[in-house]
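Hi again,

Forgot to attach this to my earlier email, sorry! This is the prediction with heme C bound. I've pasted everything inline since the attachment limit keeps bouncing my files.
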Amino acid sequence: MTHKAVHRKILEYQGAFLVRISFTTPNHHTALKGASDEKVIVLLSVAIFATAVFAFAAGDAKPELSPAQKIMQARVAWLAAINKNLDAKKFEAVTKDANELAAQTKKVGENLPNPLGKELTLAISALAKDISVAATKKDGGKIKVKLGEIKGKCGECHAKIRDKK
Ligand code: HEC
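Structure tokens for the complex follow:
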């Protein structure tokens, strides 16, 4: 059952409970001894409203990313930052992000069992390292070429490995 479905069920039960106690249970049988029917209904309504708000928030929340998705999202973010900082000629920032991309792809690539996946991921790491070096030389042209090559490797793995599953 999804989060949303669970919360919907809780709401249904609470609703049924409210209807039952407000129509069938006299005051002195409720947990809230001495409270009037109106008070009980108000309290339960507040509880139901709070649950509804929570259910809405839970249903709205983005689903947890898988470890692979987190790795991929980090790559996209580094590439986007490198592109942006290249345009702004912030070469130090380019070096930093390229080094992080290189380190992550090296670590991930070394542990990949699929030979093609490993080759492509380690190739991205080497290209990211090239970008890092080119950035220290403020060689924007070279960075652009290497960025294009990286995107080619990402696409190759998506086409040949990811989308085949
Ligand atoms: C070795 C293979 C491989 C390489 C190389 C690779 N990817 Fe992926 N990528 C995958 C797989 C597999 C998935 C599916 C992951 C999942 O849904 O669990 C994926 C998913 C993605 C997604 C979708 C993530 C999401 O939140 O659903 C993005 C974006 C992405 N990759 C970007 C990149 C970028 C950018 C690069 C290069 C810097 C790259 N990938 C390199 C295999 C690869």
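The first helix runs from residue 3 to 24. The chain is about 80% helix and 0% strand.

That should be everything now.

G.
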